[in-house]
Automatic annotation (TrEMBL):
EC identifiers of the protein: 6.1.1.19
The organism's place on the tree of life at top rank: Eukaryota
InterPro entries named in the record: Arg-tRNA-ligase (IPR001278), ArgRS_core (IPR035684), DALR_anticod-bd (IPR008909), Rossmann-like_a/b/a_fold (IPR014729), tRNAsynth_Ia_anticodon-bd (IPR009080)
Name of the molecule in the record: arginine--tRNA ligase
Organism: Cladophialophora psammophila CBS 110553
Entry GO terms, CC: mitochondrion
Assigned keywords, A-Z: Aminoacyl-tRNA synthetase, ATP-binding, Ligase, Nucleotide-binding, Protein biosynthesis
Length: 598
């Protein structure tokens, strides 16, 4: 009998010997968290006790229950322990009934029957967002990994998630890239490796531009009487102005850069197991949306001209922010104005209930300005649906020798090579993947290793990128999680768990003190609560620490295949391994990790 409905759960508990199951209908948590069954039943028993006089209740013996063992009085507290065999009986049926949804805290049919339904809420998670032609920094990397986790955990909690990357494909840096292309661009090199060539071009023109700026500064400060040159600056600004004015030639070059770069980024994100539903960009915001924002700001008296530019008077309600530039002197838009207009457009296109920006804590001021500007233009309804999730810096990332800057491909290749060293040092783990496609395996394992390393760091802390750690076949790595996941998959290959037989099978293997199987069950039962805490705080480290603790215990009960051939592999033991596998996979997927499967 399935435990996913009121009738099914009541019948299951009655079959275990619990006569009064009235507590089942009083708590919706019972359908997503098996611990709630214990807490609810214990609460009912305590209420029964307190119906008598206080002194009698204090001295009374706790009523016998199929779910709890005999209580222990340690002189200070009255300790209650789960009944091992019935914990196994309840939990394993509970996990197998739910499978991939165990831990999701999704609303089940039982909750819908009670008239509760918040499914279908829409959330946009914007993350990664690299800049066209520029380096893929450590902050882009953390945004990608943390954003993938946030999108995954929202999805598993029942939200309708749109994964979006907001490309930096517009603005003055595109004008600078175009100026560099006219001097250093090569069609042949671009076709061979577009991201690398654009980065090289940008690095060269940026170096010339900085020299031009430094020379102009010296003349301005009277240190040099040479003629001031603003050639590159003028070329940069002129190209960006042409883009905003819709010049066909400028747009053709820009589209060529953008389309090829998106294609390449899609391939690289796939190596990480990350996907996007929308490759949005600053270029996508319409003139109409920008005009709507500017008109609303003017109507509310917070938009004014200043020295040829247009600024938003955020200082009228928030003195610490002052005035923020919305349009430059030549009339081109700023990132701030485009970001505000993008919010307005996305609200119309997606009708989102929430939008989350996963961007470095360094940009906190920018997002405060965006939210405040929406308030000032009379759109507090939108501002209240926005959230900036910041994170700490990254140390230790370096471009490969001789390169002009860092690319995502460089990071992934470094992690792949480090993970190969870990595999070479651990023959047992290497043997697990011996029949797989080597390139696919190494790319996948490198990505899992990298993401687990970052996700184990608290979001607000600094992530120290350390290839030596990835090259070490240690216990607290993504590689170790994948090792046990693959081992469990192999052990369970071809195994079918008969639910009817499971209800009546022998669970005596879980009895006795210091039972290693029961210790693991006590962890598995906590998984939904761990996911809920991780979601509330948007901290991936809660789940990852839980998974590391879980696989730490698995060697204590691991039965290799040679031992299994000479012993009886009971249904209870197979169901135990199945539940472990389910929780490990669900935990990894909730983190945004893509377990390597055959």
């Amino acid at each position: 009998m399935a435990t996913t409905s009121v009738e099914g759960l009541c019948g299951f508990l009655q079959a275990m010997g619990i006569e009064n199951t009235s507590f089942v209908s009083t708590s919706t948590d019972l359908y997503t968290n098996p611990l709630a069954i214990y807490f609810s039943h214990l609460a009912e028993l305590i209420v029964q006790l307190t119906d008598c006089e206080q002194q009698v209740a204090y001295k009374s013996i706790f009523p016998k229950s199929p779910l709890f063992g005999h209580p222990v009085n340690d002189g200070i507290n009255l300790l209650f322990y789960f009944s091992n065999s019935n914990l196994a009986r309840l939990l394993m049926s509970y996990v197998i009934d739910r499978g991939a949804s165990y831990g999701n805290n999704l609303l089940t049919e039982a909750l819908v029957e009670n008239g509760v339904d918040t499914k279908g809420q829409k959330v946009i998670v914007e993350f990664s967002s690299p800049n066209l032609g520029k380096a893929f920094t450590g902050l882009h990397l953390r945004s990608t990994i943390i954003g993938a986790f946030i999108a995954s955990v929202y999805e598993r909690l029942g939200w309708n998630v749109t994964r979006m990357t907001f490309l930096g494909d517009w603005g003055k840096h595109i004008g600078l890239l175009a100026a560099g292309w006219s001097r250093f661009g090569s069609d042949e090199l671009f076709d061979a490796d577009p991201l690398r060539h654009l980065l090289d071009v940008y690095a060269q023109i940026e170096e010339l531009f900085k020299k031009e700026q430094e020379a102009a500064k010296k003349v301005h400060e009277g240190e040099d009487d040479a003629e001031v040159s603003h050639e590159i600056e003028a070329e940069r600004d002129d190209f960006f102005k042409k883009l905003e004015d819709g010049d066909p030639d400028a747009l053709t070059l820009w589209k060529r850069f953008r389309e090829v770069c998106i294609e390449r980024y899609t391939e690289l994100y796939a190596r990480l197991g990350v996907r996007f539903d929308d490759y949005s960009g600053e270029s996508d915001v319409s003139h109409e949306a920008i005009e709507e924002v500017e008109n609303a700001l003017k109507e509310n008296g917070v938009y004014r001209e200043s020295d040829g530019a247009w600024v938003i008077d955020i200082s009228k309600t928030d003195e610490k922010h002052g005035a923020a530039i919305a349009r430059f002197r030549n009339g081109t838009t700023t990132y701030l104005l485009r970001d505000i207009a993008t919010v307005v457009e996305r609200s119309k296109k997606y009708s989102f209930d929430k939008m989350i920006y996963v961007v470095s804590a360094r940009q906190t001021t920018h997002f405060q300005q965006v939210f405040k500007a929406l308030d000032l233009m009379g759109r507090s309804d939108l501002a209240q649906r926005l959230e900036h999730i910041g994170f700490g810096d990254v140390h230790g990332l370096l471009p490969k020798e001789g390169a002009s800057g860092l690319l995502l491909s460089d990071i992934l290749d470094q992690c792949r090579d480090a993970t190969k060293l870990a595999l070479d040092a651990d023959g047992d783990t290497l043997q697990l993947f011996s029949e797989e496609d080597p390139e696919r395996v190494l790319n996948a394992l490198g990505a899992i290793n990298l993401m687990a390393d970052d996700l184990s760091t608290r979001r607000g802390g600094t992530f120290n990128f350390d290839l030596n750690k990835l090259a070490n076949p240690g216990d607290y790595t993504g590689l170790n999680l994948q090792k046990w996941y693959t081992g469990l998959s192999s052990k369970l290959s071809g195994v079918e768990i008969d639910r009817a037989e499971l209800e009546s099978t022998d669970y005596s293997m879980f009895e006795g003190e210091d039972n290693a199987y029961a210790d693991i069950l006590r962890l598995l039962v906590q998984f939904p609560g761990i996911v809920k805490t991780s979601f509330e705080k948007l901290e991936s480290s809660h789940i990852l620490t839980f998974l590391f603790n879980l696989v730490d215990l698995l060697p204590n009960v691991w039965e290799d295949e040679a031992e299994a051939e000479g012993s009886s592999r009971s249904l209870a033991k197979l169901a135990f391994y199945k539940c472990f596998h389910v929780v490990l996979e669900n935990g990894m997927r909730t983190l945004g990790l893509a377990p390597l499967t055959a």
